[in-house]
């Protein structure tokens, strides 16, 4: 783990780092309380499709958990996202996404099958690197990821016993059963699952299907009206409450 | 409104009262902070089928809102429940409910159609009586009711503009569309809707149908695994958070 830069604001220190995973350089951000020493709960933040590690919703959530509860939080760019692609590739992605989600169900499943192994390895390597820091240590670990952050996060969490509570959302189980259905069924950790009633990318019935599939006995689905990216702001209070319930006690 | 008795415990005063509504004497309980003066938010608590105004879940929830937030709370016996029937009728009801919910969908719809007008009038009269007390007054009003507390509560809340936030749950929209479908569609207040994934009385699809029917733009459905009466205890934290968000600010 190589620290690239360091900034500080409102009691939160932010370290931009790279982790090397096989031939991939994975760019990440680690947030922690200024002057932190010793182990603490750690929140892993997986971003959505076409977004990146510095998406403002993730940054705000990270700051909140650091400031209110002394957590550490980390986000990395997923394969093919953020600093892992150049400006021409970003322009192509913006063009593809401008009229909504561009992939067919079958194309998405193929992309997930190709991408999941690397994404899982990268999160594991990031977790190893971050937990080796004395101011993060071996505290409890939670995962947060909506949309692509869920479809890549579910196989990661299924493969990673150190994660003991997860917030997923904006995903369903249809064609992509082949990509992460078995992983979803194998989960036993507490899950908060966030869904939008009028999601134009994932029909509510597929969302309910994914929620049913989770093997966990402690799982809650929250459904609000509105489209894919219109989760009401008060749900962030729920994320916080859920993490504190499972990681702080 | 006639106060029958008064007891006090842990900062909460409990007044057992009767309200007369046409030919019906409706027994109720009012909880408030000891020594309360002036207006405050008021929580109306509707109990489930075969239960009564002193069901322990309601009493605990009332005490919590009174002690933590200075609310007043009130519960009344629904038609055909609690102190409104004698011991022989209670024994018959226990016998009917001992193997699960005893009514067919059509029988339930008929019972609701016959019961809703009286239940709505009784809640309105109770609200009038309670708001006339100087230590309750004209503060914001919320309603809580699961199962029968929802199927009777939805028409009441639809008819009562003083109620500005509601928690419903363990109900669905099927045959009983005729009884409260129009009322559900007419609602515009913030709603928290609680549902159980393996509810043996109401299938999840009918629960999702009722949630879809609510006309409110601010509404959240929480789904947990388990049967009808197995809502996990942490959802009470959610009831509290929801009421405080909408009634205290």
What are the defining features of this structure?
249 residues; alpha/beta; homodimer; 9-stranded mixed β-sheet
Instruction: Give the low-pLDDT segments of chain A.
Output: none
Rg of chain A, rounded, reads: 17 Å
Give the H and E element order of chain A.
Answer: EEEEHEHHEHHEHEHEH
Order of neighbouring strands in the sheet with most strands of chain A = 1-2-3-5-4-6-7-8-9
Strand content of chain A: 25-35%
The structural class of chain A is alpha/beta
Main beta sheet of chain A: 9 strands, mixed
Annotation field: number of helices of chain A:
8
Regarding quaternary structure, what we see is homodimer
Would you report the number of β strands of chain A? 9
Distance between the termini of chain A: 29 Å
